[in-house]
Structures are given as C-alpha cells and as structure tokens.
Amino acid sequence: MRLSKTTISVSAGVLAIGAFLLWRATSTGPAPTEHIVAVDMPKLSFQAERGQDLFAANCAACHGDNAGGAEQGPPLIHRIYEPNHHGDQAFLIAATQGVRAHHWRFGNMPPVEGVSRRQVADIVAYVREVQKANGIF
C-alpha cells in the first residue's frame, strides 16, 4: 500500500501538533518563585494608600505583598502590566469579571467578590504608583 504525499503531510502535521500539545501540557515552566520581583515602595498618595489596604485584603494572597508576585499569582509590578499594555480598564475587568490566563501559567483569574468599581480604582492607583516607582510606566 502506497501512501500519497498528502496523507504523509497531514499525518506529519498531526503528529507535530500532538507532540507540541503534549510538550506544552507537561512543561513545568519556570520555578514557582522565579516570577517574584523585588519592589521599591514609594511614598503613596492618599488614594493609593487606600488602594494599598484594599490590595492587601483582596489581591495580595495571589499577587504577593506590594504586588511583587507570589507562588499563586504573577507580579503586577512587571512590564507586562504597564499602562500601555494593560490599561486601567483591564484591571477593572479582571477584578469584576475575571480573566483567562494569557501571560502566565497560574490559571484563570476568578472575579474578586465584593470589590466595587471605586475600590478597584483605588487599587489601580496603588499599583500604578508602585509601578512608576519601579520604572514601569
């Protein structure tokens, strides 16, 4: 039985895709703490101070103290989250609706229960001030 060139090409493509998906599913990625960053804390505005308290209560368990990352979630003090890539509205959507994982391998972010739009604005003010103090703007 002779296989056609098309059959061989399709089979090779399916095999390559399968190998990639298997590699992707079993790849462990970086060590759990390699994403954690050192954060320099600036003097904060009044709004950002409110946001700091709200961040500690609602976000730090996953994103770490001072948004530097934790074993459960990525740092927000990172160039991925600079304002021209993830605007303030992206933070609001993530907090109120959740977001699918797309930059990190921590899984999807669920919505944060019980935070208002105003509280998210304060949290974003905090994150943005800390980002700026750490060269992300």
Class from secondary-structure proportions: mainly alpha
Overall spatial form: elongated
Write down how many β-strands occur, each being a DSSP E stretch of 2 or more residues: 0
CATH topology of the domain at 46-133, which one? Answer: Cytochrome Bc1 Complex, Chain D, domain 2
Q: Averaging pLDDT over every residue, what do you get?
A: 87
Task: Give the termini distance in whole angstroms.
Answer: 63 Å
What is the ordering of alpha helices and beta strands?
A: HHHHH
- Supply the CATH class of the domain at 46-133: Mainly Alpha
Unreliable residue runs: none
Largest sheet at a glance?
none
The DSSP helix count reads 5
Residue share in β-strands: under 5%
Which superfamily, in CATH terms, is the homologous superfamily of the domain at 46-133? Answer: Cytochrome c-like domain
Q: How helix-rich are the residues, as a percent range? A: 40-55%
Main attributes?
137 residues; mainly alpha; Cytochrome Bc1 Complex, Chain D, domain 2; 48% helix; 0% strand; elongated
Describe, in plain words, how this protein is organized in 3D.
α2 packs across α5 (117-133) and α4 crosses α5. The model has no long low-confidence stretch (mean pLDDT 87). The radius of gyration is 20 Å and the shape is elongated. With 137 residues, the protein is mostly helical. It has a domain at 46-133: Cytochrome Bc1 Complex, Chain D, domain 2 (Orthogonal Bundle), CATH 1.10.760. The longest helix has 22 residues, at 5-26. The chain is built from five helices and no strands.
